[in-house]
Design a protein that fits this description.
globular; 23 helices; disordered N terminus; mainly alpha; 486 residues
């Protein structure tokens, strides 16, 4: 509360005290201004690095964009095509530049996160929107998943094929097929996700491609808005929460830049937790339960959150009822649209990436790689974490964000097949958790998943003496994965 002039004069310290006290607020003020300037500069650096990466990927076919290796049509590359001269011709040089961009983005992410409270809200929001839009205006970075989405979605409406039974190879003449890569794998995506992509089947591939990108952008920004609202309700800095999620380097490069479908799952999953946090009525609890189940219908891994949301709701029966209604609708889609067939998650669960935590632990244990027994142990550990988290939420509902993040983190750590953007599953809940331990774990996980994603990974692990395919278990895992990835 501001003092009146009379009260200020009456309470003013003597001149000597004023001379010693006057400079004291100045360092704090300068520190705050410096933190704001540093954070704003780091946010600008993120926009610049993302722009440079997209311009490089859009210049010509290169390893920066997986689909572009099968052709470089203007409709896929986007409006930023051919605007960057002097792109290195050497793939190793491009790979080195990609690592530099990831390191730069990682450092800037930490700086923005630490300084976010002092960054002007318009500058922070503008940096998020510009970075995301620029990344989506270019070709898909790294992998081809967006075309897998489109091809699975076109199999039913155009060719009468059930994507959960038939292999994409059954429709090789489709326009999306040449850019996709899971040709021998029935769809592992949730039925609600597939239903959304089937709605795009009447469109041409270029129009469907940009429609998916626009939808992902809207869902990603909506998720960030929910994180900000929930953070304010929990008396946390919404700027820090949003910056922590939005500017993660793996989210930027591989999540947004790669046009992966995680936002379609995260939007209802974060909405479920946010509704529990901000809601005060039975209807909001029912909506929270429904949103949690819808997230699982988009991506089955989100099923880990459903029980937590129901237990964390103030009116658990309302939340359970909402979850039951959404579950019934999802099962109706499975039964009526897909003949009762479910996603091929059982097959995908057997895939192994060299630096997944589960595979590295199995190798260090002397087994050479992940085995069927190891998967059983990993599933048991995940179940134990989920049960512990459920018990914690049942006792204290304010633990819900942290519990959801912990369970999803355990899900990533126990998977044999991990992709760099999987850290995105955990970030929104870590940003809302009461403890910073989960956020620190996300920083460590980001560094580890980035190591597994960079082009130099095989050389690095071989230099460390790790040869995943030289063991019997490693060869089995490699051959099994390659059977589907061709």
């Amino acid at each position: 509360m501001r003092e009146t002039p009379a009260y200020a004069a009456a309470s003013a310290p003597p001149p000597a005290a004023r001379r010693t006290a006057l400079p004291l607020p100045l360092p704090a003020g300068w520190a705050a201004a410096g933190a704001g300037a540093l954070g704003t500069a780091a946010a600008g650096a993120i926009v610049g690095l993302c722009s440079a990466l997209v311009l490089a990927a859009a210049e010509r076919p290169s390893p920066l964009s997986g689909p572009a290796r099968h052709g470089f049509p203007r409709w896929m590359v986007g409006p930023l095509a051919g605007r960057l001269g002097g792109l290195p011709a050497s793939p190793p040089a491009l790979a080195a530049d990609l690592v530099r961009v990831l390191v730069g983005l990682g450092v800037a992410w930490i700086v923005v996160w630490l300084c976010a409270r002092r960054i002007p809200a318009p500058a922070l929001c503008a940096a998020v929107v510009v970075a995301y839009v620029v990344l989506l205006l270019g070709p898909p970075l790294s992998l081809t998943d967006i075309f897998n989405y489109l091809h699975y979605g076109r199999m039913g409406p155009r060719y009468g094929l059930d994507p959960y039974v038939a292999q994409p190879l059954a429709a090789p003449h489709d326009a999306a097929y040449i850019y996709s890569n899971w040709h021998h794998l029935p769809s592992p995506y949730g039925p609600l996700f597939t239903l959304v992509t089937e709605a795009l089947a009447p469109l041409s591939v270029p129009v469907a491609y940009w429609t998916v990108k626009a939808l992902l952008l809207a869902c990603a920004l909506g998720t960030l808005a929910l994180v900000g609202v929930a953070a304010r309700r929990l008396n946390r800095s919404w700027r820090r929460a949003v910056a922590f999620v939005a500017f993660n380097p793996l989210v930027l490069v591989y999540g947004i830049g790669g046009a992966h479908g995680e936002p379609l799952m995260l939007l209802p999953a974060v909405a479920a937790v946010a509704l529990v946090v901000i809601g005060r009525s039975g209807w909001t609890d029912a909506a929270a339960g429904a949103c949690a189940v819808l997230a699982a219908g988009v991506k089955p891994s989100a099923a880990l959150v459903v029980v937590l949301v129901v237990l964390g709701a103030r009116r658990r029966w309302w939340a359970a009822a909402g979850a039951g209604v959404a579950g019934a609708l999802t099962l109706a889609v499975v039964a009526l649209r897909y003949g009762g067939h479910l996603p091929a998650t059982g097959i995908q669960d057997r895939f192994v990436t060299p630096l997944s935590v589960a595979n590295v632990v199995a190798a260090l244990a002397g087994q050479g790689g992940l085995t069927a027994g190891d998967r059983t142990i990993a599933h048991a550990l995940l179940a134990a974490v989920a049960l512990g988290a459920a018990g914690a939420v049942a006792r204290r509902r304010e633990r819900l964000p942290g519990a959801a993040g912990l369970v999803l983190l355990a899900g990533v750590l126990t998977l044999g097949w991990t992709m760099p953007w999987y850290v995105w599953w955990v970030l929104p809940f870590a940003a809302l958790a009461r403890t910073r331990a989960l956020a620190v774990a996300c920083v460590v996980l980001t560094a580890w998943l980035a190591l597994g994603a960079i082009p130099q990974m095989p050389v690095l692990i071989h230099a460390a003496g790790f040869y995943p395919t030289r063991s019997a278990a490693g060869r089995v895992n490699h051959d099994f994965t390659q059977r589907y990835l061709r």
